[in-house]
Amino acid sequence: MMMRSFQRFLSRRNLENAEKRLNLIFNLFPHGILIISERNEILYSNENLLRLLNCELAQLIPTISDLQYCQGRKQSELSPSNKIIEHVKIILSLELNQQISLGVSKCGATYLEWRAQKVLWGEQNGILLTVSNVNHIIQLEKTTSDNKLKNVLLRSVSHELRTPINSIKSLAESLKNDPEISPFHPWKEKLNIISVSTNHLLSLINDLLDYSKVLVGMFSIQKSNFALWNSIYEVIQLIKIQATKKGLQIFTRIDPQLPINVHTDPLRLSQVLLNLLSNALKFTLKGSIEIRCMLNEKNQLKITVKDTGIGISEEKMKNLFKEFGTYLDKDLNPVGCGLGLWISNIIAQELGSSIEVKSKVYKGSSFSFCVNIFDQNTQGHLLFENETICEIPKENKLNLTISNFDRLLQEENTQVLIVDDNDFNRLALGSLLSSYKILFNEACTGKEAITKVLEMNKKRKSYKLIIMDGSMPELNGWEAAKNILGLYSSGKIDNLPVIIGYTAFTSDAELSLCIESGMKECIIKPCNSEILINKITNYLSI
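== Histidine kinase ==
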């Protein structure tokens, strides 16, 4: 008899210990746990649930009864009601251990996600509710949504800004190259100022566009083979006018062992270099700016921009590469959107390395970064030789390679169709073509472009090149390109013109539309007139 009593005592004690251990585990559980009976009686709850709902045990059921799903957050279809408790009641009609995601409610400042399932608690059926704090997920969704909205807004604003800049830049360059305006004409200097100002504004727009891409994780680089010196020289020309006005000298130091052609992203490389040179120009009152291009021990291109400017203190250097971190000097008060160096550092990392800074106050600064310039399939080892140092030539003109150009002008079949809904864009591009005596027609919409292509075909002629805008009324450029390709495939036109996109859109998705529609390539507005005319004449020579 005593033995049986002792065994019952041990069993009861073991059960109590097991319950204590279970309670300890449930209370350490990061989620709220509640088990209720068919009559809405509390069979079990942990402490975390009370903290999440911010109530006492006696108020638990009334508190839950008042909770409703957040708008758009109801997942359960068990009941049309928006009250969570109405869905909980129906759980008992489901199969045992079948789990249902109910949705998200808000209690105070806390967003709570609710899950429920039918369980066997002792000898009776019950409902197990698990409640999780999902504030971090809601915040992440909000941030992602805000970033997407910012991205759309920035892309839209940037596109609208690029359109007038394209007209201003193109017309200014056309006037600069007009043979009737002598090099000493007072307009020349004013046109140079317009060019410099539009280039500066364009760099700010590019920073905003890149910022929008970084926000949504769409930032990328596009590698290709190109002539390194040409890219560097073009960037230097953009700041040469301002440097001359400030009395600054610009020097380059080029490693002769660098290959003529390199494999990386030419636009991104130029963007980083231009940003570093622009900053050097801002903070250098007298002296010089030096650009060094060397081949390092890892066979990378190492670019260094060194100036004799005011320098940067260690305290201010901490904010150089922060988002919207600007360095303002009381004497210079430079302006900008605070994204240039932040964006440049991100680009530099994609190209090969972060930007390194060395600076001493009143003694100048040195910014450097490394770029992977060889294709992975390229093998071989390059040796260093003596460096060469040279001053940038005074002539502000690049050599153009226009093969068989005189012959092309005499061919009746060599014609260009400009398609753009913006009158100023057509005027600017038309002025450029006219300065090189290239014959062209115009169309305001994609629909009008198709009509003109068909009209030319009736005359047994055809356009050799179509320069097509993207976004236009009636029929956009991408659809127009597809239609023209379809006309050729169906035999309705005898010759297929080369179609190139010329658009202010810059996102990968929109640029991909150009290739998918059958265009040979896409040129982003505004484009340097010399680069643009080179591309045009190359296509006309095919």
